Structure formats: structure tokens, C-alpha cells
Here is the input.
Amino acid sequence: MMQAKAHLEVPGMPLDAVLVRPMVAADAGEVLTVQRAAFVVEAQLYGDPFLPPLVETVAQVVADLGRCRGLVAIAGDRLVGSVRVRVDGSTLHIGRLAVAPDQQGRGLGALLLARAEEVAPATEALLFTGHRSDSNLRLYERAGYTEQRRVPFDDRVTLVHLRKPLG
Here is the structure.
């Protein structure tokens, strides 16, 4: 996979570009730091501090890289976002999209999502988010995803499954 730079305003950073590159095991600690910071907002929405992205360990992230591919976004020398993609036949399953809270709203999530869709040839991409995650739902809809179904996860969370056909 090629490394791709995209121009992005990153306040407080000396560079005006973000590098998106494959995630490696050595990134796991920083990935978890960003992931936990990003998913705290989700935990507050749902009143659940034990959402899977919040309790994942470094060892689990590394093990996950044996089953999927990951991408990280780097601004300067700082990891500011990540996403993981699992390929199943001609379907991409996209998950764990996370952007550092101070970098949200600047297009970084959309950039990571677009790069995730390019990881492998596929006819469709699937992902899910919680029903109260309005900013996630808006991002996914703007990127061309449509809601397929809603599935109750527990008494607090209903998962919204979305799909996007890929060229």
C-alpha cells in the first residue's frame, strides 16, 4: 500500500500535511491512546465506560493486526487517527475509526475512511456505529454509506449497520 499525504489544517502542528500509512505493531500504544480519547465521547453518549474500543489492550491491537489491516494518520510526529479494515471475500469491514478529539471536525475521519476503502479490491464496505452517534452517522452518510438495519446490542445501545457499494 502506498503512503498518501493529504493536506489538512492541523492547528498547533508545524506541518500542514497528514501522512496516512499502514499500521504496524509498534503503533499499538499510540493507537490505543487516540482510540480511547475518541471513544470516551461515545461512552458518555451511551453511559457505558466499557465499550470494546475503551477496554482493548495493546496485545489485542497487535493480535488484531494478524487478522486485519490498519491505517494510521500522522501529523508531524504525532499519531492523530487510526482505522482498521478486515477483508472478507469482496467485502471490507471497517472498524475502530478514531480521531484525536482535538483534531475532529477537520476532515481527518473522512480521509481515513476513504483510505480504508482503498485497502483492498472490494464490491462493498460495511461498518456500524451506535444509534446516538450523530456525528459518525453524518460522516458515513456524507461518504456514501446507507443504513441497512438497526440491531439492539443491549438495553442502551442499538447498532446501526451501514453499507456502501464500492467501484
In short: The beta strands are 4-7, 17-22, 69-75, 78-88, 91-99, 124-130, 146-152, 158-165. The two ends are 18 Å apart (CA to CA). The chain has a mean pLDDT of 90.
